[in-house]
Design brief:
Two copies of one chain form a homodimer. In chain A, 37% of the residues lie in helices and 19% in strands. Chain A is α+β, with helices and mostly antiparallel strands. Chains A, B: Residues 85-265 form the FAD-binding PCMH-type domain.
Chain lengths: 539, 539
């Protein structure tokens, strides 16, 4: 894959916007001119001299430093397109072993520099974006540690280099007959070490579990030596160190080799799309499905606005009209909601699950029929392609971002509505409309995740566009932080969510996290500014 | 329930040993005289004056102090029967609210005393046993905080007082149509707060999850204020505080109100016992069942020795002979292994699961037939009664203890064999035989728990009997600690397992735990000696 230097994914892939999809967007937010894009050469010319020492493991080339300076958050996107990066890492290293990571950490102490671990560079919350510092900054790209090192078929535990990205995780397992089944939307690029460091969740977490259930053990190199977690199925022996270091986002150390729980490739996997009459029936249906504990591998339910947007963006106009006519004929109007679900496992189990699912969905007025499996296949085929839309839209002056949380079922409607209203109203004083839609996914008996996408017009400058985003992000984050909802269900904390973490963790929860980061990194050398806001009193 | 003051459970319940069960035990370890039992009055006479201040929340009565001085570990058992308690708490408190717990913690600082939280008093690892101290010791019995405080049916989250014991958890939920489904063997007495503080696992964890999956949030009172964890279904926002405080065994604070994930009462629940030809086929069968992810709520497989012992202890001789004849007729001899399993859920799901289970078990030569469900019911009816056997055996001079671990499938046989051999050989130099048998339970795709029971003769004195146990416990614990197995899968660390914790957690893992206990309890006032061995340099 030739990777886009200033955006998402494979530069050979372009996600087209259908004409009627474009008309729908324009009907909500209007049209505008795109902002000018900086060239890679222009950005490279801005890269300053490196402050790092010369070392055989450290590269100081301008292009590498540009390519490792930013993730995929909206501020990152603006920086990459405007060329106003602000800070570049002083160098990039590509270790090939735990001992080379160890060597780099020792070097960081010796030469007093900071270290940022880099997996797939897919953070949408600023995890890997360097902050201004008096000290030099080294980004450690784990991408060369990308091998399946061991597979114990008896215990179904696989050991990977922490820098192994999704496709290499699956391809190396599949030739042996196994799968991990962890598919975040960033799967094409994000890495197993990154998933663990940021507590990732995959689209099929309902069946395969979140990364918490998949991570079995492994090594994290810290400033005080290697922290090894033995692979053990379960334990009551005190606090779970595995759970303590998951989600530390590079603040305690760098994962180098990790063990994950794999399963044999399923006999059968099927996805379906069913349409529900309205939001209320759709939400009740998925809640009942998950609370009845029916084995399924994924569920997602889009609200009416998202259902409309997805179908417009995902179809040609003629296809849309056919589908619309069919659904209207079956009695579903403009309030209809798409419900996508999947079953993964043995044929006999899938058959039983589907029987129960159909009964429940039918009871809530769901319409599937012959198109359900075809549309399920379309979802599965395009499941990692949505992020490419940002690029296409950007070239037309349209900015896209997403935000997400999770909360208990009793709060879902109020949190969802508050987030959507806040985004829709956030630019009213500029007479700007925002196009907002939402889905629920990652179903739990207790609640689910809420995932909201918003489209808005670029302002006349990068600065003004960033201000628009900041206003929207802050307003939605405040709502989340004060609604017993998590500031992130699957994107992590990074720098963008750090100001809201205390509302969730509480004063003593924050004390736990700060105590550990201070104990392991008293000089604040490891990914500073991530997870915790700038610690007062520290350099 | 009138509780035994010096042993397990309800004093009105006596578990009889069948004649042929007794003969089996005697055939292995021989007979001996029981040791003399101390009376409650004699022990009460030893209770010294309390060093605690007078306070309306603190009781200093001798009987209460005796009844809260010990749990159910083997050393506890010897202390309770010999009357040599060593240390008694200086008083007992029965708070009725979080604010009363808060008041007691403030008082502990003001008057410089130590605090031990007490749930059901069922620890088998010394969690609640006070250690000699220059300071006074207060045991805080949470038993009055035993109410269902809230049930959100939409989110399926129940809030309980942390001192609610198993039967009150279930009875208060069941009248509302819900269940928690957490059934450790100590269920009759142990409490939801204790389960969380010690990372408990129930017999049906395969279906309902371990306490880690059930604990949703709640309050822990610490010396620095209340640590509140909001109920959220899942999050990627940094380390999971819930997971950090689970298993801290009173070292960071005391759980006062806790939220757990409940489910609606299942439509159907069934248990079965099937006999497998030998250990190899039995182990392969359960591994295949769990790795195929077939929905079941429990599995347990006893090795041939345990199968023999359980059937002898659980049947009359005439019943045993019938069963034995039937199994021999079906081709199963002395190597046969009992495999107990259960399904819990909807009828349609259970039917599908059972179809798959039968196919796999049949493939490995399993014999069930008409007796399978009847024997399953016998298991279910007696599931909490095994601990009562200790009392009956003790009165005949027979000591019983159990130990447990978990490890990956690839290690199961070698760890199991090493533990059994070590126990069987541990008293050879005294010409003593030990009767040892084992089952696997709590199946995970990655591995399972190994649970070993051992019977041995009391020595001529309490001191010599304790020495026998210490030798056995140390030898088995050393093996576990050095075999990539956990020092405890379900009993916690307490004081008995603390010396082995570092082998599992590593130097840096221990540093994490010590850092947190120091931060939260710099004066080592909360349950000292538990979880961590006596910290050097601390008072």
């Amino acid at each position: 894959m030739a990777r886009r230097w200033n955006g998402w994914g494979d530069e050979s892939y372009v996600k087209e916007i259908s004409d009627h999809g474009r008309r729908l967007i324009h009907s909500v937010i209007g049209v505008t001119d795109p902002l000018p894009n900086a060239s890679l050469d222009a950005v490279m010319a801005k890269v300053p001299a490196s402050r790092l020492p010369d070392h055989y493991l450290i590269s100081k080339g301008a292009e590498e430093r540009v390519r490792h300076a930013r993730g995929q958050s909206f501020p990152d996107w603006l920086a990459m397109h405007s060329g106003d990066y602000g800070v570049f890492p002083d160098g990039v290293s590509y270790p090939e072993s735990s001992s080379q990571v160890r060597e780099l950490l020792d070097l960081a102490v010796e030469h007093d520099f900071e270290v940022i671990p880099y997996g797939g560079g897919t953070s949408v919350a600023g995890h890997i974006t360097p902050q201004q510092s008096e000290r030099a900054i080294l980004t450690i790209d784990m991408g060369r540690m990308n091998q399946l090192l061991d597979l114990c078929e008896e215990s179904q535990v696989a050991t990977f280099g922490a820098g192994t990205p999704g496709p290499l995780v699956e391809s190396q397992l599949r030739v042996r007959g196994y799968t991990l089944g962890h598919y975040p939307q960033s799967w094409e690029l994000s890495t197993v070490g990154g998933w663990i460091a940021s507590r990732s969740s995959g689209q099929q977490s309902l069946g395969f579990g979140r990364i918490e259930q998949l991570f079995a053990g492994g090594r994290m190199e810290t400033l005080h030596g290697a922290l090894d977690i033995p692979s053990i199925p379960a334990s009551s022996a005190g606090p779970d160190i595995r759970e303590i270091i998951m989600g530390t986002e590079g603040r305690l150390g760098i994962f180098t080799e990790v063990q994950v729980r794999v399963t044999r490739l399923p006999e059968e996997e099927k996805f379906f799309v069913v349409f529900m009459p309205d939001w209320s029936s759709a939400k009740k249906a998925v809640r009942e499905l998950v609370q009845q504990n029916i084995p399924m591998s994924m569920m997602r339910v889009s609200n009416a606005k998202e259902s409309k947007a997805h179908i417009h963006l995902g179809t040609k106009e003629s296809q849309f009209k056919l589908l619309d006519r069919y659904l209207r004929f079956r009695g579903l109007g403009g309030d209809r909601c798409m419900l996508t679900f999947g079953v993964t496992g043995s044929k006999i189990q899938n058959k039983t699950s589907l029987k129960q699912v159909r009964k429940i969905l039918k009871g809530y007025g769901g319409i599937g029929g012959s198109i359900a499996q075809m549309m399920g296949k379309i979802w599965a085929d395009g499941r990692f392609k949505f992020p490419y839309l940002r690029e296409t839209a950007w070239q037309e002056g349209i900015a896209i971002d997403t935000l997400e949380t999770s909360t208990d079922w009793e709060n879902v409607d109020s949190v969802l509505q508050s987030i959507e209203e806040s985004l829709e109203n956030s630019l009213k004083n500029e007479n700007e409309e925002v196009m907002v839609f939402t889905h629920l996914s990652h179903m739990y008996s207790q609640g689910c995740s809420i995932y909201t996408t918003y489209f808005f017009r670029c302002a006349g400058s990068y600065e003004a566009t960033l201000k628009r985003w900041q206003k929207m992000k802050a307003s939605a984050s405040e709502i989340i932080a004060h609604s017993r909802a998590t500031i992130s269900h699957q994107h992590g904390v990074g720098k963008d969510h750090a100001p809201y973490l205390e509302a969730e963790k509480g004063r003593l929860g924050m004390r736990i996290i700060r105590t550990l980061t201070k104990e392991f990194d008293s000089d604040r050398r490891l990914n500073p500014g991530t997870l915790l806001v700038q610690e007062s009193g520290w350099r």
